[in-house]
Backbone:
């Protein structure tokens, strides 16, 4: 169960004086959908570049599948780095053909992967004529061509419209459901929360947080309240000792509570004070809030 | 080997520049002997002499002069083949496919090897083309067509082949280092037609060091095919591949190949 797909030890890289990645330690468990988060320039792409063999690390090491030969290991990984990269004058199909030659993997799956990303009808069109969303989808098809065990996706939804983003998200979920390990670098936190199981946050090349996505809201509960008399509501809430923090904006108040305090308990105590909120929404703390909190703390 | 060559040809097959350059080579290779023949016929009709020869007696298309004549003249068009190599490597940078190829499971050495396969392929094809053109011209115009005459001094084809290998490897290294097609082509052309001739002239005539002058990077690839036309004017006969020049050329070839692998190994492909 606790098999590790990729382990990174003390990995560092600098470009001149700029330290892009500092002493990074990371283990990516098999079968996880692993989110690599961080602001722009935090070292996500550099880290992926190093483990994919295109950027030479200055220090540290990494190991795929406990395998010594990382060229052999790379044949078991499908990856996109930064943006879809293909020969623009070739058709989608020919580009996949070329990838199959580079990987020596054959074209048996070409039709399947193109159908999976919904590009089969456009396979004979030149890559340069594709829309950005089609390019991203071709990149995913190409990464899936050799049926890899691990899929590395760097900003796969970059520059896409909401529909395109939703398509890619579904695609990633379907692939993950097939049991593949996915490493996803992104700054779209909403995306990561929706598809990932684990995540790390990088900042200035350092790991500042790691955890499981489903435990993000584990020890706090967020409740949003609204009622006709906001001032009375606010003062009533201020006097309750279960409340950890309170934020009022316009006609809504957001409070965070210990996880064992439910909305029902809160409403009961408000009712005892003669206040009946008309708007009550319980939600979990989201990754975005956690991310901003952690990034600002560091 | 064949897998790598097939990959390279697969990449080139749908590009326009490749076919345009191949077309230009075919044009140049066919126009030259036709032009030379027309000129000789014209000179004959005007009763002009070239050196001490009557134009129709000049053994330009005769076995075995033809090999040196053709390879020397055609080596001037190797720059077209160099453009193929240059664009092929620099476009991998501009499309960033050089990085994606590695991500897709090519290793860095294979990448350089595949480009070297392309260089080997172009050199072989060009040499074979010159061989066939030489045979055709010789059989059409040479007074002697016995086997011994045909293949005497056909070793100039080997010199031509080494010339191509070395010059194209030089272009590969230039492309790898400069990364941008326009820049690489402009600098290569500027270097071989402007900078090197000036340096060559200074070293050869001012400093009087002809061997050093012949060992300049581009000149070195040409010096292994001695100018054949001088003999018609000066009766200075040189039919053989010069040994020291060949050594210099081979050293360059090794250096370029080694440097290409080294640059690729050390570089971050981002």
Residues:
């Amino acid at each position: 169960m606790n098999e590790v797909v990729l382990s990174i030890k003390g990995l560092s890289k600098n470009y001149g004086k700029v330290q892009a990645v500092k002493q990074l330690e990371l283990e990516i468990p098999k079968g996880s959908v692993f989110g690599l988060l961080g602001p722009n320039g935090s070292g996500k792409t550099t880290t992926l570049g190093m483990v994919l063999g295109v950027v030479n690390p200055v220090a540290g090491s990494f190991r795929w599948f406990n395998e010594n030969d990382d060229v052999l290991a790379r044949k078991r990984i499908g990856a996109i780095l930064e943006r879809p990269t293909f020969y623009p004058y070739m058709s989608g199909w020919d580009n996949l053909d070329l990838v199959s030659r580079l990987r020596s993997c054959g074209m048996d799956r070409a039709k399947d992967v193109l159908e999976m990303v919904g590009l089969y009808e456009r396979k004979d069109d030149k890559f340069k004529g594709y829309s950005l969303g089609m390019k991203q989808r071709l990149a995913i098809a190409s990464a899936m061509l050799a049926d890899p065990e691990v899929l590395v996706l760097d900003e796969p939804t970059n520059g896409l419209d909401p529909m395109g983003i939703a398509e890619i998200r579904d695609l990633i979920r379907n692939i993950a459901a097939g049991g593949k390990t996915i490493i996803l670098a992104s700054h779209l936190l909403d995306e990561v929360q929706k598809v990932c199981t684990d995540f790390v946050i990088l900042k200035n090349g350092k790991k500042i947080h790691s955890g499981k996505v489903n435990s993000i809201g584990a020890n706090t509960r967020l409740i949003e309240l609204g009622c006709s008399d906001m001032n009375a509501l606010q003062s009533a809430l201020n006097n309750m000792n279960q409340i950890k923090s309170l934020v009022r904006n316009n006609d809504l108040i957001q409070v965070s509570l210990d996880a064992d305090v439910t909305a029902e308990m809160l409403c009961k105590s408000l009712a005892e004070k003669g206040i009946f909120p008309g708007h009550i929404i319980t939600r979990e703390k989201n990754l975005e809030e956690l991310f901003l909190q952690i990034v600002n703390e560091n | 080997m064949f897998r790598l060559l097939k990959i390279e040809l697969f990449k080139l097959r749908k590009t326009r520049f490749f076919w345009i350059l191949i077309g230009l080579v075919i044009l140049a290779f066919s126009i030259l002997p036709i032009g030379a023949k027309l000129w000789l016929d014209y000179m004959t009709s005007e009763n002009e002499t070239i050196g001490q020869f009557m134009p129709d007696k000049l053994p330009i298309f005769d076995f075995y002069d033809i090999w040196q004549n053709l390879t020397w003249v055609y080596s001037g068009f190797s720059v077209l083949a160099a453009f193929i190599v240059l664009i092929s490597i620099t476009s991998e940078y501009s499309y960033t496919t050089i990085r994606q190829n590695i991500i897709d499971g090519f290793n860095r050495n294979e990448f350089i090897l595949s480009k070297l396969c392309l260089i080997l392929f172009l050199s072989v094809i060009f040499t074979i083309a010159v061989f066939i053109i030489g045979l055709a011209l010789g059989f059409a115009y040479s007074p002697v067509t016995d086997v011994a005459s045909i293949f005497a001094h056909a070793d100039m084809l080997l010199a031509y082949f080494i010339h191509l290998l070395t010059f194209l490897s030089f272009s590969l290294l230039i492309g790898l280092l400069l990364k941008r097609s326009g820049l690489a082509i402009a600098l290569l052309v500027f270097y071989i037609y402007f900078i090197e001739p000036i340096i060559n002239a200074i070293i050869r005539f001012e400093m009087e060091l002809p061997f050093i002058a012949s060992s300049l990077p581009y000149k070195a690839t040409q010096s292994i095919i001695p100018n054949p036309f001088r003999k018609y004017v000066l009766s200075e006969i040189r039919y053989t591949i010069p040994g020291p020049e060949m050594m210099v050329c081979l050293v360059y070839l090794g250096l370029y190949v080694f440097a290409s692998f080294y640059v690729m190994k050390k570089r971050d492909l981002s």
Q: What stands out?
A: Chain B has 13 helices and no strands. The interface with chain A takes residues 3, 6-7, 10-11, 14-16, 95-97, 99-108, 266-270 of chain B (CB under 8 Å). The mean pLDDT of chain B is 88. Chain B has one domain: 2-266.
